[in-house]
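queue> holo job accepted (magnesium ion)
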Amino acid sequence: MSASALAKRPLLSRHLLDKAAVWIVLLILLIAAGFVSEAFLKLNYLGNLVRQAAPIGITAVGVTFVMILRGVDLSVGAIVSMSAVVCALVMDGKAENLWLAIGVTCATGSLIGLANGLLIAYGRVSSFILTLGMSIVVYGLVQMGTGGTARGIVSPGFREFLNDRIGNVVPTLAICFVIAVVVGIFLQSQTRFGRNVYLVGANPHSARLAGIPAVQTTVIAYCVSGLFAGLGGIALLARTGVSGTNPGAGMEFDVLAAVILGGTTFAGGRGGVGSTFAGVLVLFIALNLANVAGLPFAAQLTIKGIIIIAASAAHAWIGRSGGDRTE
Amino acid sequence: MNRAQLVIPFFSRLPPIVWALLLTVAFGALYNPQFRTVDNAMNVLEQSATLAFLALGQAFVIAGGLIDLSVGQLVGLVTVVACMGFEAFPGWGLPVILGCLLLGAVVGAINGTLINRLRMPPLILTFGMLSVLQGCIFMLTDRSVGSSIPAIDFIAHGRITGIPASLILVVIATVIAFYCLQRSTFGWHLLAMGNSASAARKAGLNVRGLALNAYVISGLFAGIAGLVLAGRLGTGFPNAGVGLELDSIVAVVLGGTPLKGGRVNVVAILAAVLFLGTISNLLNLMQVPTFTQILIKGIIVILAILLERPRWAAAPQ
Amino acid sequence: TGSGTAQELDLTKESTYDQILEWANEPLDTSQYKKDGKLKIGVSAGYLSNAWINFTAQMIKYEASLHPEIEEIKITDAGFNPTKQAADIDDLLTSGVDAILFWPVDEKAIMPALKKAHDQGVVTINIGYNFMRDPSVTSNAYVNQWGYTEQVVDQFIDSLDGKGKIIAMLPIAGSSAAVVQLAVLEQKLKDYPDMELLSAEYGDWDRAKAKQLTENLLQRFPQIDGAFSPAGQMSMGIYEAFDEAGRLDELTLSPGDDYNGWVKLVANEGKWGSVTSGLEVGRAAVQQAVDILTGAQTTTAIVVPTRYLAPEEAKELHEPDRPDDWFKTDLPAEYLPQ
Amino acid sequence: MALLETHDLTRRFPGVVALRAVNFTARAGEVHAVCGANGAGKSTLMNVLSGTIAPSSGRVLINGKSVSFTTPAEARSAGIAIVYQEFSSIPELTVADNIFLGQEFRKGFGIVDHKRASSEARALMERFRIDLDPDAAVGTLGVADRQLLELARALSTDAQVLILDEPTGVLSLSEQRNLFEVIRTLRDRGMLILYISHRLEEIFEIADTVSVMRDGELVATREKGSLDRKELVRLMTGHEVSDTEAIVDSLAGGETVLTIDGITSDDSRILLAEGEILGLAGLVGAGRTSIARRLAGLRPRTGMTAQLKGKPLPFDAAGVLKTGLVYLTEDRKEDGIFGPLSIPMNATAAALDYFSSAGFLARRRERSEAATLLEQLRLVASSLDMPITSLSGGNQQKVLFARALLAQPKVLICDEPTRGVDVAAREDIYRLLRDLSKRGVAIIMISSELDELIAMCHRIAIVRHGAVHSVVANEDLDEHKLVLAATGSDAA
Ligand SMILES: Nc1ncnc2c1ncn2[C@@H]1O[C@H](COP(=O)(O)OP(=O)(O)OP(=O)(O)O)[C@@H](O)[C@H]1O
Ligand SMILES: Nc1ncnc2c1ncn2[C@@H]1O[C@H](COP(=O)(O)OP(=O)(O)OP(=O)(O)O)[C@@H](O)[C@H]1O
Ligand SMILES: [Mg+2]
Ligand SMILES: [Mg+2]
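queue> job finished
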């Protein structure tokens, strides 16, 4: 066998199927949706869908890194809330505060992420419980800081710009989401940081032997998660203005569902931002479908649950038949 | 050997959470006159009963290296079904109660079976199940329905010679859980599975059976918790179980059980439940502003998990 | 038994509300509650992280500060968890309060706790959405929800000239608010055969959720003439969705409440109006508690009236420099949130 | 009649047929060796026989009766016990608890009787002369002791068939002798022992019958007497392989690369020159791995100081790696491979500095250089994009070697580099080590196979009780002397 023979990528292998699975599901779902309502095949509507998904999607990009690293970040819902509140507060209704507000929001998001990262990396504790605790802390802080009413006012032009449609078709916010995904993919596949995340996530012991700075990687990954949650908060603010002190409540679960749908599971070292993007869309299309079909709220909850289970079962199945010897 | 020599090792062997509980109680008793009343103590014990059952059930699952996120909504479902049942079939209290316990066990069995069959991560499966169950609840009702019956009320609120009936039940459940998890072969196998599922399988343990049983037990305990909650609320409130799954996991982890499983201390878990209840009670009594209370609780969760750093988290060689 | 004695009120019948007003005017025997000396008042909120409840809580604090006999006011927050609320009420009792003002997470679910309070001779006053008629509930401070919604619906139908396809945006599914609002709307619509309710959605009081649901509805229905949404916060989400879909010209919105963001919008648009949401219940509740505890003469409930504000009036009343998440009140500055 | 038979046993994995219509026969009272290159299907066959995995088709017969197991427990009650190639004990439990896991002793009320387990385990180990403390936590044992534990566990059931999948991979000579004693005793009691090993000498020493597998097929079953080494290798590989003639190149006397203090029993300093291969020999648990890991910065370097090219070694693993000291682990699964990741990602993990600039990866260069190197190492893989876990053990080891090489080592410490590696791949690894040595890389080679050490190393350090006891030049050594030195019998 020659070097080039080894380096050649096979056209279709089972494990490529794993990566493609969520895209295939997305395609099938889209076609199915197209039968239900033609709207799903219109660019305009799809743009809208991506825009709807932007806050959750942008947040999910960051969480993907943490999950590749075998962690989880349940504090993103609280960070999104905090960001929306803080951003509006700093804006204070003035256009000149816009960039300052965005800067401050990203900084606070990253800061919470930093706290998560430091505690998890140095404390070596369960990220599940720790970030859960952190979400309570952040929620408490926001409530203490605002006294229960969100007192910010968004800058003029901010919402108008982000809610505009470029060429009357593609919403700006949808583009922001796509940019976040592209940045995420770049981070994940082209940078040392991204590689380190995969290595540490796949096997922390091996990573140590290979001289990978696990602590640094962990801290940065949680910072990234916090940062993207901050951006998600700004996106939420752009979508819906100041709406209460806890607009991101429960969002962490949707984010988690989307990331898992994409195939980034808790096993670590698997999945990626691209799949998360597809996962977010699958989730939103499915829920919209349920909505359009006029299914009651209760049925939608059940559907969401079944989708999560089915998607994960499919990934597990493909993973097993994909030549993976680990049980 | 003098007494101190006997006592000191005993105390030094106590799990940290027990210490935390003792210190909290001591602090509360010293600084807050309302806290140290017997009545208040009984209140706290009574309030903790639901979570205690739930945490005990969760302990089985986590000990085996699994997790059950569906218990919170299962509690909600059982509460709703129980109250609907009590109202729809007056005089048929016992069958309804048994039916509810069965419901809990069946949902647990579904969890276990799906995890075994689909071979998927328990965290995700039960997370999906959480959503499914929530959907089921809202398909049944979107508001408070039905009412509880005196027998159930008594379990939730009643006192036997001043001691809450729920406390007695919790103690019995704890003893049973202690025997099952920390003494019996079943528990031993479960812990072995928690330490290494593949090794347990190779040793010939029926890991699928173990997982199934753990989930059935967890579901059963959630059923009990749901009934107690029905008694406490007196009605089937559809959102009654929201967030309880996380509380139960927090309690189990505070009780020193690593999320990876493989170790468990039932008494410490009970202490953790009481600790959470006591803290909440004490903060309320000390007039800490509510938002500050939330912050403090978050910090406690973080501190607790940092302090309870399990042995397995030590650096690999 | 400890619970289940609460009288079930049929929230979907107008007659129920006539009955409520009748009860409200009955005199209350306060002698059994009379206390001498300083008073301690507990507040058990179902959830505090909501601007309306928050402002009402501030109202409570402000009113309490006007009564020298009130020595202490204690507020707990159940975070939308009835189990926690039951425990909160227990804890308030333990700390020896004389009266408990409460917003129930769920009326039935906290009955056992209220019963316990009642048995200990503690005054219980409901400030929640529903009127509660039960021996364990001493009194109610009540905003007439039927009346409020009627004002909204009447105005809405008026501005649509009694015809058109409409959608309804309701609060949390199953909450009393959602039940009442839908009932009023459906009853009124009976008289208008030209009006069609396309779909009723549950937006959870949430601007973002309402917006998303509306976006889906816009997809489903090629023509939507009006949106019924008594909560201004959700109305804003609806407005934005129509705006972004470029279909704003077909939209007629119902009046919302006096949520500042909404009032600002009304002032800008010069149409649709709003209905006051009765923030004064907070003050009324404290007053009622003091009356009962000092043995003064009072009725079994205080009903706080609501009032339609036409767009012109909204212009006067809105506070453009305040955030959206705000209510216009006459609270002194130090009692405004934070 | 045959005790154990298989009829047309086939097992498919996605993309591979691990077993192709295997008709295998073995009698009671024999030691039946199964040989074959990496990935030949030996472990798969054993896993099917022991109920760990199910066959795709075909039958297994015991005493002429068709059986089918779905779990190891069923196989065990049918009299088949297995010692897996990979460890399957639970580190958190004690030795005794591990041995009786799944067959606990009980007091009343179903309560687990740990005391009884401990005493029974002690008795069991006395019977088979295994030196293990029943009450020790398995996590504190070295790999060799864990291997013994696996054996003890298999012996605790009254098995008719005992499967040993590379049991001597981690055993040193005396342990191995001891094991062979045990095996012979068992055989004489009428047990069938299926024995897998890559060490041909062992096979000739212990086996009565030899079956050879190649590419999932059973190519031959022969009596040992009718087989010689050359023939066996030919059967395994399908072609002739030149014999491993030990040729230690004479050392060109290069500069000193590594200086180690504080690990010898007489406080002397150990110097390692460019291009030198230093072997570490010793008994199980003698502390060779521990020396290596301390050097590599993976454990606190208490008492030891080391300098690389005159500069003190950093204390952290990443720092040590940067200075050019690379450690190749003995435990691939635990801290070697990155399970779900592709082969190139596994290969370049320790050389990301080289494959990136300013934090950005040069992915094309990374892939092509990794591919070239892996091809030189004769990696067998269907595609580079497969997760590394889809490779057989030997091929995984090659990838790890590639990782070490890409890290540009000045000093390479390889811990049991040929464990679980087949004959052909072994040759590749030996060749590689010699090439490295020629290029001036200093090598520390830890191995439990003395002939390998003697064939490869310029000098051999004998490790006893965590310290280097003596360092001997290769010319002065033979296997016998080495054993005596390692056991400490030479001092007398
Ligand atoms: N679980 C699995 N999934 C996919 N392929 C597998 C699995 N187990 C084994 N294989 C494949 O089956 C073939 C036989 O593997 P097996 O482990 O039986 O070889 P072996 O002879 O034991 O090799 P070694 O000497 O390296 O241990 C190999 O090609 C291997 O890649
Ligand atoms: N993680 C550990 N914790 C405690 N003691 C250990 C640990 N690992 C090894 N030991 C002990 O340290 C000693 C040296 O073990 P080490 O593994 O270094 O020996 P070795 O000579 O490399 O043997 P092997 O042939 O198993 O590689 C042994 O007595 C072993 O029991
Ligand atoms: Mg093998
Ligand atoms: Mg070793």
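queue> The two ends of chain A are 30 Å apart (CA to CA).
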